Amino acid sequence: MKNSSKPHYLGKQQRKILLIMSNAFIVFFLLTMSVSASVLGQKVSIDMSDATLEECIKAIESQTDLGFFYKVRQVRKVDGISITAYDEMVDDVLDELLSGTTLTYQLSKGVILIKPKPVVRRASKPVNVPVQESTLAKLKKVTGTVTDEDGQTLPGATIREKGTTNGVAADENGKFEIEVQDNNAVLIISFLGYETVEVAVGSSTTIDVSLVLALNELEEAVVIGYGTSKKKDLTGSVVRISEKAFESSSFTDMGQILQGQVAGMEIVSGNGRPGDQVRIRIRGESSLQGDASPLIVIDEVPMPDNYDLNLINPNDIQNIDILKGASAAAIYGSKGSAGVVLITTKQGKEGTAEVFYNGNISIQQYSNKIQGLNAEQYKTLLMRESIYDWVGKSVWYVENYNRNPYYYGDMRQYGYFHRVFDPTYFEDSDTDWSEVLTQNPINNNHTLGIRGGNKEASYYASFGYTDNKGIIINNFSKRLSLNLNLDIRPTKWFEMGFRVNGSKNPVSNTGDYSLIWTQRPDIPVYNEDGSYYRYYSVGHSRYRDNALQLAEKAPSLSDNLSYTLSGYGRIVFSKNLRYQATYSYSESKGESSRFTPSYTYAGSGGYYGGVSGIRNSTSSYSNQINFDNALHYAFTNEIHDVSAMIGTTFNQDKAGYVSAEFQDFPDDYIQNVEYNA
Question: So what's the pLDDT on residue 411?
Fold first, then answer.
């Protein structure tokens, strides 16, 4: 919230000190050009013949206080210009100069940018051929290439059919292929940092597009390690993910939301199960300890190592800044060597209290289900494999030891062959385990909150609930989140704020999709009485586990509670100088357990047996304390922009865990450790 009250000023002696500091810092200034919003209304007179565009631009510069920005090689290509203009406005002269060329102009902050027009190259118009009416309903294929103004391809550019959800991304060579409804379709081509272009398809089947840089992107203020800066003033790479990316997504998993948002940033979400930790890799960089995970910073508070982004409610995020370059993340030292992810949460705003709700309910289903072997195919495959296995081993003995072909044994007595061809080896069912072990989950994501404030204080509070189920039954991840932000301005020269955010995250894990392909299709799921079927494997001399029974009765359970408490105080000495102290305390507690019943292979003691149930439990704990002090100086006028910071940081981390295994329980329902033998 912008504070409209005037800052407190110090006395004459203090102002003298500030003046000395200002003169000391002035050597670091960045020169920018600034003119009034009506610069194009200035008038010029030009009378030139057979001139280049560059010569004409210099003639305009000599008569005005305008500044031009352009690529010399692009402007020098335009020559043979003849123009006569007396006391005409600059915009009229520019329109005449650039008419009939591939260039256009744009005014931003008093600087005129000469840039290429968006280029759309189409294939030659095909010959009209009579088409049957039924053919018109078929989709039309359009191909093309997306490049920048220099002809460099733009891999990952988005191509979308307007008014539909139909869209594709350009490949590593900038090429794309999309099927649209008909000739009336309009393609929307976009790429981060470039102006979006709309192209009518018409009769064309090949459309090549050249995008130009969006100048306003350079004016955007982004968060960096030591404050904020405009993109155009940065030497390091900084990318912003805005609030729109989170509002427009129905995903509840941060990995899915961030996927594809930043070039060069890799998102790893484990095996795709709900609750799997999201890991980020920024161009494969790694820290001094060898960890390739970037540092996560939420509202200026660094998070512990291996912080899970899924603990954050996406609806509470205002924006995320990705610091790739070393200069932007330098203040974090070695912790930021793999990059820094700066997350800014939503704050209160001045005005009447506003109660808000944001929620969605979605359903997941297969887009293309993988079909496995049925029972008959499985039996045939095993029989052939047993024969090939015997033949292969027999041939190997003949070739290497010159033994009798039957040295390895009569094929009918060969162990593998004997088991598979035993009449009791196969069952009579035909089970599709992909139907038994999967579901079409319904996911919920809801956030309820309130925000408001006035000139003296502002507040934001939200409560979130997420229930994310997996494709495999009994796989789920739930999240309860709380976020409180309070900013107070009791005087003109002092501000303070408090932040509380926490989450509770229970997770059930029964396995990933590979669980399906380890099941035999000839084995039934249930007995005739409705109990779980258990198959006795003669070859392994044990019962095989029923996958559905394990998923429903013996999942791995975990529960994590984490929270962060932080506060800051800010003293404003003058409009150029301020001091800020920030303190934060983060804590995380986790419990995980799995009970393996006695009727399973592992729970009975495995090969040796003699065990009646096994329970594995792990408890983990970690906390982190941060205390930062920083003195900020900033000076800005029409041509100078100077900033500096000096500060100290104290950090303390603690972590530990306890893991235990318990065996032999009275039965599979009493799992209290006190009763284990």
Answer: 53
